């Protein structure tokens, strides 16, 4: 068994432990789910838990939820990617000319909150905005659009992390 296989097994055990802790802290939160995917452990929040419609400002009442999660995330050995998603309803404001800007700003504001309020190491955090382009559902009904509006906080697995940039990686020649 190679080092990569050993690390994947460690990931599985580590993710299960983190999942159990997060379930105890946030398991009763409506609109929150935890899933394991090839990219890692996905902590999914319906956007309405954290943000008002069309806003990138973290709701005051959701900061307690992020605080509980941050205590756990602070010491995890995994890279953490915060991903913002919207539905396909167009937005066109001065601040957000498209869903790209809204989703990216939401992810960035969560990263900033984790760094500024909980001193989570910025080297292990990243923010990504996918806008409307990776929906979970078809956007044909309000309930499908609501499911597509979300924030995923992903603890990246070793397998997916190999595709992330790193200052420690060797240069690859093509």
Task: Walk me through the structure.
The chain is α+β, with helices and mostly antiparallel strands and 174 residues long. It has a single domain (25-149), classed as OmpA-like domain (60s Ribosomal Protein L30, Chain: A, 2-Layer Sandwich). 40% of the residues lie in helices and 18% in strands. It is built from six helices and five strands; from the N terminus they run αββααβαβαβα. It has helices at 3-26, 47-50, 63-73, 99-118, 142-148, 158-161, and strands at residues 32-37, 40-46, 80-85, 125-129, 150-156. The protein has a five-stranded mixed sheet. Helix 1 packs antiparallel against helix 3 (63-73) and helix 3 packs across helix 4. The model has no long low-confidence stretch (mean pLDDT 92).
Using the coordinates shown, work out and report the CATH topology. 60s Ribosomal Protein L30, Chain: A
Query: So, the CATH homologous superfamily?
Result: OmpA-like domain
Name the helicity range: 40-55%
Largest sheet: 5 strands, mixed
List key phrases describing it.
60s Ribosomal Protein L30, Chain: A, 40% helix, 5 strands, 18% strand
Write a short abstract of this structure.
The protein is α+β, with helices and mostly antiparallel strands. The chain is 40% helix and 18% strand.
Please outline the helices and strands.
Layout: H1 3-26, E1 32-37, E2 40-46, H2 47-50, H3 63-73, E3 80-85, H4 99-118, E4 125-129, H5 142-148, E5 150-156, H6 158-161
Parallel strand pairs: 3-4
Antiparallel strand pairs: 1-2, 2-5, 3-5
Helix pairs in contact: 1-3, 3-4
């Amino acid at each position: 068994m190679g080092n990569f296989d050993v690390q994947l097994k460690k990931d599985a055990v580590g993710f299960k432990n983190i999942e159990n802790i997060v379930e105890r802290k946030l398991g009763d939160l409506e609109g929150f789910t935890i899933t394991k995917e090839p990219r890692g452990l996905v902590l999914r929040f319906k956007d309405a838990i954290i943000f008002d419609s069309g806003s990138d400002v973290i709701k005051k009442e959701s900061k307690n939820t992020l605080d509980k999660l941050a205590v756990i995330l602070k010491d995890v050995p995994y890279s953490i990617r915060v991903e913002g998603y919207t539905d396909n309803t167009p937005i066109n404001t001065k601040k957000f000319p498209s869903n790209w800007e809204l989703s990216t700003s939401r992810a960035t504001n969560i990263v900033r909150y984790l760094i500024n309020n909980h001193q989570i190491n910025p080297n292990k955090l990243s923010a990504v905005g996918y806008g409307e382009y990776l929906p979970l559902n078809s956007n044909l009904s309000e309930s499908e659009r609501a499911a597509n509006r979300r924030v995923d906080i992903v603890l990246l697995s070793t397998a997916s992390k190999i595709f992330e940039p790193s200052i420690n990686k060797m240069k690859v020649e093509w």
